[in-house]
C-alpha cells in the first residue's frame, strides 16, 4: 500500500509528517511487546504517546498475539506500567479473540482441548466454553494408558511453557477426528528475550501438530484478519482508511495491517529492522510486498514532538 501521503513504503518519517499522520488518522492499533513495552518495562515515551492519543479523543486499541494472560491481567499490566487511561475494551489478545471465535463464529458444542497457559483457559472459561480438565498427568502416564475425553470438538494451541510430549500426543489423537477443529492463537515462530536468548513461539508447537495430523491450523491472531473483525464488531463504523497499525514485526503486524487494508507503521524498538523491510520491498516475490510498512519510526516516542506542536497550535 502506498500510504496516505503517497510514500512508496518503508519511509522513515519525522516531525511534520508524523503530525500530519496524527491528524489524518482517528484509529490507532498498537502491538504491545516491542512497541509500547519490553516485558515489564514500558518503552520510554510510550505512556505519554498512548495516553495523549486517548486524551485527544483518538480510538486506541491493542492487538497482541500473546495468549498467556487474560485481559484482566493485561489491564493490571497497563496500569502498572503507566498506561493509566487504557480500558479493558481496548485490549484484543489472541486468547480473547480465540474465545470469541469459538463462541460466536463456530459456536462450538463440546469441549476444547487446550495447549496453552492458564490465561488462555481463563479467557475460554469466561466466554462459557468448556475445556478438557487439565489433570496433572502421572509421571509414568503414556498415550497408551491415559484417558481421552469423548466430546472434544476443537484443539486450540497457544504458547505453552509446560508443553509435554503427552499433550502433543493427546492433541494428535483428537485431531484424527476430521470434525474436530484445529485452531491456533497465533503462529509466531519465536520471541526475543532481553538476555539475547529466544523462546520458541506457538508457531513451533503448531508445526509439530501439523506434521503429526497432516492438517493445517486456522490461525486466529495476527496476521489473520479475524482480530480486526473483532475490533470492527465492537467499535462500530471503523473505517480501515482511518486506521494506523503500529507494530515491530513485519511478518505479523505489517502483514496484518496489509491484510486488513490499514496503513502500517514499523517501529524499530522490537524484532524487525529497516534492512529486513527493505529486503521485502526489493523482493521479486510480490506477496512479500505486503510485509513492507508504509512508515517507519525509530520509536513511538517520535510522536511526542508532534503532540507538542499540535498543542502549541491550539493555544
Ligand atoms: Mg511485538
UniProtKB/TrEMBL annotation:
<dbReference type="InterPro" id="IPR006357">
    <property type="entry name" value="HAD-SF_hydro_IIA"/>
</dbReference>
<dbReference type="GO" id="GO:0016791">
    <property type="term" value="F:phosphatase activity"/>
</dbReference>
<feature type="active site" description="Proton donor">
    <location>
        <position position="33"/>
    </location>
</feature>
<keyword id="KW-0378">Hydrolase</keyword>
<feature type="binding site">
    <location>
        <position position="31"/>
    </location>
    <ligand>
        <name>Mg(2+)</name>
    </ligand>
</feature>
<keyword id="KW-0963">Cytoplasm</keyword>
<protein>
    <recommendedName>
        <fullName>Pyridoxal phosphate phosphatase</fullName>
    </recommendedName>
</protein>
<feature type="binding site">
    <location>
        <position position="222"/>
    </location>
    <ligand>
        <name>substrate</name>
    </ligand>
</feature>
<feature type="binding site">
    <location>
        <position position="33"/>
    </location>
    <ligand>
        <name>Mg(2+)</name>
    </ligand>
</feature>
<keyword id="KW-0472">Membrane</keyword>
<dbReference type="GO" id="GO:0005886">
    <property type="term" value="C:plasma membrane"/>
</dbReference>
<comment type="similarity">
    <text>Belongs to the HAD-like hydrolase superfamily.</text>
</comment>
<feature type="binding site">
    <location>
        <position position="248"/>
    </location>
    <ligand>
        <name>Mg(2+)</name>
    </ligand>
</feature>
<dbReference type="InterPro" id="IPR023214">
    <property type="entry name" value="HAD_sf"/>
</dbReference>
<dbReference type="GO" id="GO:0005829">
    <property type="term" value="C:cytosol"/>
</dbReference>
<dbReference type="Pfam" id="PF13242">
    <property type="entry name" value="Hydrolase_like"/>
</dbReference>
<dbReference type="Pfam" id="PF13344">
    <property type="entry name" value="Hydrolase_6"/>
</dbReference>
<dbReference type="GO" id="GO:0046872">
    <property type="term" value="F:metal ion binding"/>
</dbReference>
<keyword id="KW-0479">Metal-binding</keyword>
<dbReference type="InterPro" id="IPR006349">
    <property type="entry name" value="PGP_euk"/>
</dbReference>
<dbReference type="InterPro" id="IPR036412">
    <property type="entry name" value="HAD-like_sf"/>
</dbReference>
<keyword id="KW-0460">Magnesium</keyword>
<feature type="active site" description="Nucleophile">
    <location>
        <position position="31"/>
    </location>
</feature>
<keyword id="KW-1003">Cell membrane</keyword>
<feature type="binding site">
    <location>
        <position position="191"/>
    </location>
    <ligand>
        <name>substrate</name>
    </ligand>
</feature>
Amino acid at each position: 500500500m502506498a500510504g496516505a501521503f503517497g510514500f512508496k513504503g518503508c519511509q522513515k518519517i519525522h516531525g511534520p509528517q508524523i503530525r500530519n499522520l496524527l491528524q489524518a488518522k482517528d484509529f490507532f492499533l498498537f502491538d504491545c511487546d516491542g512497541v509500547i513495552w519490553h516485558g515489564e518495562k514500558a518503552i520510554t515515551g510510550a505512556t505519554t504517546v498512548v495516553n495523549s492519543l486517548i486524551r485527544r479523543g483518538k480510538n486506541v486499541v491493542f492487538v497482541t498475539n500473546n495468549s498467556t494472560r487474560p485481559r484482566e491481567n493485561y489491564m493490571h499490566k497497563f496500569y502498572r506500567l503507566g498506561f493509566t487511561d487504557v480500558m479493558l475494551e481496548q485490549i484484543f489478545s489472541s486468547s480473547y479473540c480465540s474465545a470469541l471465535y469459538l463462541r460466536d463464529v463456530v459456536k462450538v458444542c463440546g469441549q476444547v482441548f487446550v495447549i496453552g497457559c492458564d490465561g488462555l483457559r481463563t479467557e475460554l472459561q469466561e466466554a462459557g466454553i468448556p475445556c478438557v480438565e487439565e489433570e496433572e498427568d502421572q509421571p509414568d502416564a503414556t498415550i497408551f494408558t491415559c484417558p481421552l475425553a469423548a466430546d472434544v470438538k476443537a484443539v486450540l494451541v497457544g504458547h505453552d511453557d509446560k508443553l509435554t510430549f503427552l499433550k502433543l500426543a493427546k492433541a494428535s489423537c483428537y485431531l484424527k477426528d476430521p470434525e474436530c477443529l484445529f485452531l491456533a492463537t497465533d503462529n509466531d515462530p519465536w520471541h526475543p528475550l532481553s538476555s539475547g536468548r529466544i523462546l520458541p513461539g506457538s508457531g513451533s508447537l503448531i508445526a509439530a501438530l501439523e506434521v503429526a495430523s497432516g492438517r493445517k491450523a486456522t490461525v486466529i491472531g495476527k496476521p489473520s484478519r479475524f482480530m480486526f473483525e473483532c475490533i470492527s464488531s465492537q467499535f462500530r463504523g471503523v473505517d480501515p482508511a482511518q486506521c494506523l497499525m503500529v507494530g515491530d514485526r513485519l511478518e505479523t503486524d505489517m502483514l496484518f495491517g496489509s491484510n486488513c487494508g490499514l496503513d502500517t507503521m514499523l517501529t524499530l524498538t522490537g524484532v524487525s529492522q529497516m534492512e529486513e523491510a527493505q529486503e521485502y520491498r526489493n523482493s521479486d516475490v510480490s506477496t512479500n510486498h505486503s510485509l513492507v510498512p508504509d512508515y517507519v519510526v525509530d520509536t513511538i516516542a517520535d510522536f511526542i514532538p508532534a503532540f507538542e506542536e499540535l498543542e502549541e497550535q491550539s493555544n
